[in-house]
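#struct-help
A.M.: can someone run this one for me? Single chain, 251 residues.
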Amino acid sequence: MLEIRNLVVQIEDNRILNGLNLTVHDGEVAAIMGPNGSGKSTLSYVIAGKEDYEVLDGEIVLDGQNLLEMEPDQRAAAGVFLAFQYPLEIPGVGTMTFLKAALNAQRKARGEPELTTPELMKRVNAVGEKLEISRDFLKRALNVGFSGGEKKRMEILQMALLEPKFCILDETDSGLDIDALRIVSEGVNALRSPDRSFLVITHYQRLLNHIVPDTVHVMSSGRIVRSGGKELALELEANGYADYRQQAEAA
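D.P.: on it. Structure tokens below:
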């Protein structure tokens, strides 16, 4: 279970998160929706341990471990995974080299034996086939020359291989066409498990038609201003965020 308590965060003296509280239970898919600038991506970066953000107050606890006391690689080994809105291209680093290094680093940190190249290839090919990732892409530099949909599928491939405990999807639907959205969503849904939880950050209901959430949280001005079931996303799609902006400003 992930618990965030009174999280206050700023960057360059600009306050972004203002006493945010959130709980995501094991096996739960929690969606966060909200207007631009409400702090959604900042929340994902702070959980994962991205530099430059200053935490002024609060705590983030995953299964009893305070993530704020851990380096990003330690958080990853503890089971945190962040799928970026805009995955980076890394020229000169082969996709298979990257996957092997990432997977074996985490296995080593958890006291598990490293995978051999044949073992890794078998796993990658099995998952890649389900995500419709061509084997030719696995021979290229990571994300270099990939379309937006191909980059997102590569993120889900990484998530499937690493088998994280807590998965954050930061606007995974951004830039996806209908077919890519379906493939990526099916990849995510295949990983749903009583032992794995998801935080799905999105602006739009369309992603939640494919990855159906257990709970929906509305974020505005750096805090959660309302929570409800999956029907709340439909309400937001119909009515927008104006009322919640006013509510957060008045708080």
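A.M.: thanks! DSSP finds nine helices and twelve strands in the chain.
D.P.: also worth noting: Residues 82 and 160 are 12 Å apart (CA to CA).
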